[in-house]
Amino acid sequence: MLNYQFDWAIITSGQYFEWIVSGIKITLQLSVVSVALSFILGLLIAVMRMSHIRPVLWFSHAYLEFFRNTPLLVQIFFWYFGSYKILPTAVNDWMNTLNFEFAAAVIA
């Protein structure tokens, strides 16, 4: 039992290798899209925080306080499970035709 040698050839052959490559591609896509969107959103919020217009300044402070003070896991669960309850039916149908799991991961 202590001298068990893992057979790495299983991973690089057949269906398992295709699953691993597919998972790596999805992870890279998710990372690139998330970083790009978060950069744009962060830049927008930073510009809003420097604004002298009261409603814009208030919104940026409220946005930051909300997302800083809620745990990430709660946000992920909300976007995946709870967004169906607050969005209109047409939006839910549209999201079901797309890959909503990917979109929820990007948003979270």
Description of the molecule:
The protein is mostly helical. It has one domain (15-107). It is built from 5 helices and no strands. The longest helix has 36 residues, at 14-49. The protein is elongated and about 65 Å long. It starts with 13 loop residues before the first helix and ends with a helix.
Q: What separation lies between the terminal Cα atoms? A: 42 Å
Written as H for each helix and E for each strand, in order along the chain, the element string is HHHHH
Alpha plus pi helix count = 5
Indicate the percent of residues in helices. over 70%
Average pLDDT confidence is 86
Q: What is the total number of structural domains? A: 1
Shape designation:
elongated
As a percent range, the share of strand residues is under 5%
Instruction: Outline the biggest β-sheet.
Output: none
Secondary-structure topology with pairs:
Blueprint (H helix, E strand, L loop, with lengths): L13 H36 L4 H15 L3 H15 L2 H9 L2 H8 L1
